[in-house]
Amino acid sequence: MKNILILGANSAMARALARQAASPNTQLVLAGRHVKEMEKTAADLGVRSNGPKPGVLAFDAQAMETHEKFWQQVLAKFQVIDEVYVFFGQMHPQVESQRDFRLAEEMLVTNYVGAVSILEKIAATMEARKAGLIVGVSSVAGDRGRRSNYLYGSSKAGLNSFLSGLRNRLVPAGVHVMTVKPGFVDTPMTADLKKGILYAKPEAVARGILKAAARRKDEVYLPFFWRWIMLIIIHIPEGVFKKLKL
Ligand SMILES: NC(=O)c1ccc[n+]([C@@H]2O[C@H](COP(=O)([O-])OP(=O)(O)OC[C@H]3O[C@@H](n4cnc5c(N)ncnc54)[C@H](OP(=O)(O)O)[C@@H]3O)[C@@H](O)[C@H]2O)c1
Question: Residue whose CA is closest, atom 8 of ligand 1?
Answer without folding.
Answer: 139
